[in-house]
């Protein structure tokens, strides 16, 4: 039986900080760039950080999208010492990975290394068999092909990423940023993850269960709703009834509901729950407030209601969440 992932105390980093990203002929430049940006840049502002290397999965010239040629730091032998292995996309859903690569991934997985796939990289992990019986995601355009070829995987096609402990998968393209920040948050805590996000000029956190695709706001309503959303974020402790929101948006309730869902991909009630959960998470991580006070400040009405939404959405209680992510300033 494989041992659970070794974790240091909250914020101290993984037991093995070595990150190795695969490089292959036909490399997905964007996904590989995310791996470098998130894990490979020097971070002198942090006392502890990952070490990063690139691993060639095959011999010969390695070409990347956009006319680039890539020279890796080494070959598959680098996976033997990796704590985390990243598969930054793959050259095609129909392209079978080399047997030597699959063997190396299985060996890394067996000794406890974490395996991450970005976008189509999930096909490599699937071919290695490490996703059998697990939940996983990929770009929405590949979800059906993945389900047909690997029926033992529980495909979740409508989420940004899936964390199965040792094996983590992200949806298409930019969702790799969300998965990377999630892992950084898991390893080094929310403050470090937030600093990395700010440096990359991306949102500090998008929950893995968020939908991959959200329709863009209608041009004539985008600005008005944007102002309303900011106002709602500043008044999460208030009830925020539908009639009040529609009145502020200067729309009928029916029109407001339609415009809101077109702009955000969810109803006002669902949006408020997600925002209140986000605010509650910040307070659990960065304050010593009791759960009851946090529930009141975030507009849940009661601690029991907040616990219900935490368990339903995050599969964890507020107390357990605080225990896992909160750390000293």
TrEMBL record:
Alphabetized SMART domains for the sequence: HTH_ARAC
Any Pfam family the entry gives: DJ-1_PfpI
Domain of life: Bacteria
Location of the HTH araC/xylS-type domain: 226-324
Signal peptide span: none
CDD domains recorded: GATase1_AraC_1 (cd03137)
InterPro entries, per database record: Class_I_gatase-like, DJ-1/PfpI, Homeodomain-like_sf, HTH_AraC, INH-QAR
Gene3D superfamilies: 3.40.50.880, Homeodomain-like
Sorted UniProt keywords: Transcription, Transcription regulation
Database matches in PANTHER family: ARAC-FAMILY TRANSCRIPTIONAL REGULATOR (PTHR43130), HTH-TYPE TRANSCRIPTIONAL REGULATOR RV1931C (PTHR43130:SF3)
Protein name, as recorded: Transcriptional regulator FtrA
Organism of provenance: Dyella acidisoli
Gene name for this UniProt entry: ftrA
């Amino acid at each position: 039986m494989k041992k659970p992932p070794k974790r240091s105390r909250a914020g101290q980093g993984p037991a093995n900080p070595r990150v190795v990203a695969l490089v292959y002929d036909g490399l997905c430049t964007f996904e590989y760039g995310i791996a470098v940006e998130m894990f490979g840049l020097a971070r002198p502002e942090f006392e502890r950080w990952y070490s990063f290397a690139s691993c060639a999965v095959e011999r010969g010239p390695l070409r990347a999208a956009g006319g680039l040629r890539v020279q890796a730091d080494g070959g598959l032998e680098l996976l033997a010492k990796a704590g985390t292995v990243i598969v930054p996309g793959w050259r095609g859903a129909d392209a079978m990975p080399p047997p030597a690569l699959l063997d190396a991934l299985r060996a890394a997985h067996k000794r406890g290394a974490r395996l991450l796939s970005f976008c189509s990289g999930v096909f490599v992990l699937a071919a290695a068999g490490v996703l059998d019986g697990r939940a996983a995601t990929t770009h929405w355009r590949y979800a059906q092909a993945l389900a047909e070829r690997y029926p033992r995987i529980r495909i979740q096609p409508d989420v940004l990423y899936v964390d199965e402990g040792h094996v983590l998968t992200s949806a298409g393209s930019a969702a790799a940023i969300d998965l990377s920040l999630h892992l950084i948050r898991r390893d080094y805590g929310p403050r470090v993850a937030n600093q990395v996000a700010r440096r990359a000029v991306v949102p500090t956190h998008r929950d893995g269960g968020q939908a991959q695709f959200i329709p863009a706001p209608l041009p004539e309503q985008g600005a008005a709703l944007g102002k309303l959303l900011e106002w709602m974020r500043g008044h999460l402790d208030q009830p925020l009834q539908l009639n009040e929101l529609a009145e502020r948006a200067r729309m009928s309730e029916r029109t407001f509901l339609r415009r809101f869902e077109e702009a955000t991909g969810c109803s006002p009630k669902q949006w408020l729950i997600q925002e209140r959960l986000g605010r509650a998470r910040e307070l659990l991580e960065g304050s010593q407030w009791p759960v009851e006070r946090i529930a009141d400040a975030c507009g849940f009405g009661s601690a029991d209601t907040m616990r219900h939404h935490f368990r339903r959405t995050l599969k964890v209680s507020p107390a357990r969440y605080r225990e896992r992510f909160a750390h000293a300033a």
